[in-house]
Amino acid sequence: MKSLYTNLFPILAAASLVAGQSAKLGQWDFVGHSGVSTMHGILSPGTNKVLFIERVELATEVTINGKPTYTVEYDLDTNTIRPLTTISNTFCSAGGYLMNGTVMNLGGAESSQQVDQGFNKIRMFTPCNDAKCDWWANNADLSVLRWYPSVEQLADGTLFVLGGANKGVAVNDAATNVPSYELFPPKGKGGAIPIDFLTETLPYNLYPSVHLLPDSNLFIMANVKSIIFDTTTFSKKVDLPVIPGPPRHYPLTGGSVILPLDPANNYEPEILVCGGADSLKATSKGENTCGRIKPLDKTPMWYMEEMPFGRLMPDIALLSDGEVMILNGCLKGTAGFGKGTDPVLTPILYNPTAKKGARMTQLQPSYIPRMYHSIAFTVPSGQLLVSGSNPNKNPTGEGPFPTDFRVEIFTPPFFFTGQPQPLIKQAPGEIKYGQKFEVEIETYSDKPKVSANILNSGFVTHSTHMSQRQIWLETEYKNGKLSLTAPPNGGVAPPGPYLMFVVENGVPSKAVWIMLGGK
Ligand SMILES: *[C@@H]1O[C@H](CO)[C@@H](O)[C@H](O)[C@H]1NC(C)=O
Ligand SMILES: [Cu+2]
């Protein structure tokens, strides 16, 4: 039998020739092979590498000592993979960074191919640059089984783990629902603590949207409902208005993001929610609206906008220049194996600071459908990594949407202004809250207008970009000297690793990794 890997490769190489056109609308480049189907992805802090995480299943070309594995470290410099050990089934998991930069991946699915079940498992990865690090099992498990949970980092660095189902489901229901949260590391008595919101939002409450607000509380959304959840009392604080339009969560999957926070408006948070689908039918239509809300406003309201076309299963990624990209997904059907059709190949560039009606630009289309189980996020070069697509129960090179192993890099339009990327020559590796610090840079224009931001690209899976967050830094740039001020507290930016970008006249630098924490 010919393997999937060799089956697909020739076709892919030919397809890459399409790239390189219309740079003004951005550019797609096919750069490598992911080895595993990239259902989940996260940057490995301190490195130029990405962790690709799949599920345990029949076909894989990636082995260690002849045994298949389902997670790899992908090197963005060489576009090569290093197989990692799969210690429990990572299918349908969640994750994020601990405040010391260790990557955590938790939850998952049933035992398969002699790999342990992962529903209540916690897997850790301490990043390295010497190819010696691997996944290790945390000795304590989650309190309950969680398939399709979400994780968000809190102001004190703790990870908030929310919801899920106790087994794989097409649609959640009362019997499978896991309406609870827990903290890692555990606090107090620990354990799973009930949260009514996840009962009220059945059946569309899997991979719920969770975004940390600068007041340290959480914006939580599922289905059409959202609340502010107090992280001091751990109880509901505010019921926010219902979003117009259809439900926005699995299997009617939309996407959400907290827009870049800016000291210029005292870090006023705004949440953007886009896409979704209008029913469980095969003819279900991708939703074309986005809603924007300021949860901490006196009277929060959803302000609706229209995308040029509908989109189910969008990825909403923060870009290195502070804009937002809405991409991947499809126009018809729902999330789930074999349930989506009509891929949407044209990404939208969304400028959050532009006036309503002038925020969206259609970018260069890709030629690769990125359906169920695909990912996209910003990498240290300042470009966007796009990969995945596996709407098939077993990986296959056949059918309307073959399992896709192509890794693409999208170069956004702002890199094509003619001005080179500014260069970060020296920056501290660690910064403390409120600290003023200096960064040595090289600029390339006569009149450089310089700004800087820090970015967590998040743990990305199933259109959910967990802990994704971008914060503009207070900037002073005089006589070629750049001084920046770190965010004031963990509500604005939780402690941990971030990419830092310097932006000159709208053109971002390559990033350096920076550790934020302490007092
Ligand atoms: C980070 O913290 C975790 C949890 O406390 C710990 O197990 C791990 O060893 C730490 N990593 C480093 C590099 O210190
Ligand atoms: Cu899935």
From TrEMBL:
InterPro entries: Gal_Oxase/kelch_b-propeller (IPR011043), Gal_Oxidase_central_sf (IPR037293), Glyoxal_oxidase_N (IPR009880), GO-like_E_set (IPR015202), Ig-like_fold (IPR013783), Ig_E-set (IPR014756)
Domain Galactose oxidase-like Early set residues, every copy: 422-515
Boundaries of every Glyoxal oxidase N-terminal domain copy: 70-414
Leader sequence residues: 1-20
Pfam family, one: GO-like_E_set
CDD domains assigned to the protein according to its UniProt record, in alphabetical order: E_set_GO_C (cd02851)
PANTHER family, A to Z: LOW QUALITY PROTEIN: ALDEHYDE OXIDASE GLOX-LIKE, SECRETED PROTEIN-RELATED
Name of the protein in its database record: 19877_t:CDS:1
Taxonomic path: Eukaryota, Fungi, Fungi incertae sedis, Mucoromycota, Glomeromycotina
